[in-house]
Amino acid sequence: MKTIDCRNMACPQPVVTVKRALEESPGESLTVLVDGGAPRENVSRFAANRGLMVAEAPVEGGYSLVLSGNGIFPEVGKTNAPVGEGKSIMLVGSDRLGDGPEELGRLLMKNFMITLLDVTELPDRIFFINTGVLLTTAGSEIVEVLEKLENQGCEVFSCGVCLDFFHCKDKLVAGSVTNMFTIAESMLKARSVIRL
């Protein structure tokens, strides 16, 4: 069984490294050494989403993840879903909407998110990046709205690098942490992408 060491790698490098290793040896089990927190979560989620079993154990300096099973690795740029049937993605890159005064922008973003609760078709996933991640953390005026959106089937994700940059990963209260690889892959496979 091959072992790769992804400790001390910046996002999204652990996921990219694991993806390449799995593609080089399809069907073979792989042991991955990762740091705790976002790298561990991101690699585990990546593997599970591709039909692999993940067994983890703490090791010195992080975690050991054993990935096993056949898995599903579609060709890069390809999707099994017919055109028009992929997920719809919303990318939120700021904690405010528009380019006007900050106070107005924050009010517009809050009102926009509240309005989503009453539209007929929600996005499948909302990704928060840059200052947008501040909307998913403690103290945000829209945390309850995001929780209601999740209860209605909308997945909510915040960029781990962005949360780290603003020193607020421990304050995340809505949705879960993700990485740039997952964001990019989801956008490229999406039926539609809406950027705020």
Task: Write up what this structure looks like.
The protein has 196 residues and is α/β, with parallel strands linked by helices. The chain has two domains: 2-68, Translation Initiation Factor IF3, CATH 3.30.110.40; 88-195, Hypothetical Protein Ychn, Chain: A (3-Layer(aba) Sandwich). 33% of the residues lie in helices and 22% in strands. It has six helices and nine strands, in the order βαβαβββαβαβαβαβ. The chain has helices at 13-24, 38-49, 102-116, 143-151, 160-165, 180-189, and strands spanning 2-5, 30-34, 53-59, 62-68, 88-92, 125-128, 155-159, 176-178, 192-195. Helix 1 (13-24) packs parallel to helix 2 (38-49). This is Selenium metabolism protein YedF, putative.
Write a brief caption for the model.
Residues 2-67 form the UPF0033 domain. With 196 residues, the chain is α/β, with parallel strands linked by helices.
The number of helical segments is 6
CATH superfamily (homologous) name of the largest domain? DsrEFH-like
Number of domains: 2
Shape: elongated
Strand content bin: 15-25%
User: SSE string, helix = H, strand = E?
Assistant: EHEHEEEHEHEHEHE
- Say what the CATH topology of the largest domain is: Hypothetical Protein Ychn, Chain: A
Report the strand count.
Answer: 9
Radius of gyration: 18 Å
CATH class of the largest domain reads: Alpha Beta
Average pLDDT works out at 88
Structural class: alpha/beta
Which ranges are low-confidence, i.e. pLDDT below 50, for 5 or more consecutive residues?
74-84
Give the helix level as a range of percent.
25-40%
Protein name: Selenium metabolism protein YedF, putative
Pfam families: DsrE, TusA
Domain UPF0033: 2-67
Family: Belongs to the sulfur carrier protein TusA family.
